[in-house]
Design brief:
- By secondary structure, the chain is an alpha+beta fold.
- It has helices spanning 6-24, 57-61, 65-68, 78-82, 130-137, 151-159, 161-190, 194-233; strands spanning 38-41, 87-90, 95-101, 113-119, 239-242.
- 49% of the residues lie in helices and 11% in strands.
């Protein structure tokens, strides 16, 4: 046994566990929800558009009568009235959706918290398309065009689609290399040998490069999409925030 190889073994084990957590974060309701790549806040979507002093009659005719007289009084219920959710959080394999509790709006004493109600099915090389998701949930007769959904948001999301798939492949490669490096480190503790150490070092370097590049791609995706959403979506009540703990 080589006691000096125990420390590299522990470091590799930690890297392997953290990599798996990155991949499977948000894989079910409430499971590491804070490990999202980004979150889209749609709790205010349509508030400006549906204001009775600015809305078009065609839009109002497509919305239930309960909204017509209450638009200016709605606080955090507008998303429910439109049949959508308050937030949509994107993860590596899926997205989750839900409502903010106790309210979508923060005040001096209460800070909104995510209450996840559903997560989509796991999909390899998943790419989150909020335009398609939200349109599919809107009440019949209402479209994102009615709510003045900016095409710039859809364009920004599609612009990073290839990068999202490359990111997934790199994460898988990194996890696989880390797993093999973990096995090699374990064997190194038991037996040792120069060749085993060299192979283990190469595997660790491959894992480091794959995970590092994947993380850089995630950062670029987050920055671009969040910037475009906040730049073009704020006027219609849509904002986005970067994930804080994913990386």
């Amino acid at each position: 046994m080589r006691p000096t190889a125990i420390f590299p073994l522990l470091c590799t084990l930690v890297a392997f566990i953290l990599s798996l957590l990155c991949i499977f974060a948000g894989s079910k309701r409430g499971y590491i929800e804070q490990g999202d790549i980004l979150t889209l806040n749609t709790s205010m979507l349509g508030r400006v558009t549906l204001n009775t002093s600015k809305s078009s009659s065609s839009l109002l005719n497509s919305i239930s009568s309960s909204i017509k007289g209450e638009v200016n009084d709605l606080i955090g219920d507008l998303a429910r009235e439109l049949n959508i959710h308050d937030f949509y959080s994107a993860h590596l394999l899926d997205y989750c959706e839900g409502y903010y509790t106790p309210s979508a709006l923060a005040n001096a004493t209460v800070e909104p918290h995510k209450n996840v109600t559903r997560c989509s099915n796991h999909t390899a090389m998943f790419h989150f398309d909020p335009t398609t998701v939200i349109q599919s949930e809107l009440k019949p007769g209402i479209s994102l065009a009615d709510l003045k959904w900016p095409s710039a948001i859809k364009n920004a999301v599609h612009a990073v689609e290839v990068a999202s798939k490359v990111m997934f492949v790199l994460y898988c490669l990194g996890v696989a290399a880390t797993g093999l490096a973990l096995l090699g480190a374990f064997l190194g503790v038991l037996s040792g040998g120069r060749m085993a150490a060299i192979i283990d070092s190469l595997l660790a370097f491959l894992a480091f490069m794959a995970l590092g590049i994947a993380s850089a791609i995630v950062s670029a995706i987050m920055s671009k999409v969040v910037h475009e959403v906040n730049k073009h979506g704020t006027d219609i009540g849509v904002t986005a925030t970067k994930g804080k703990t994913f990386l």
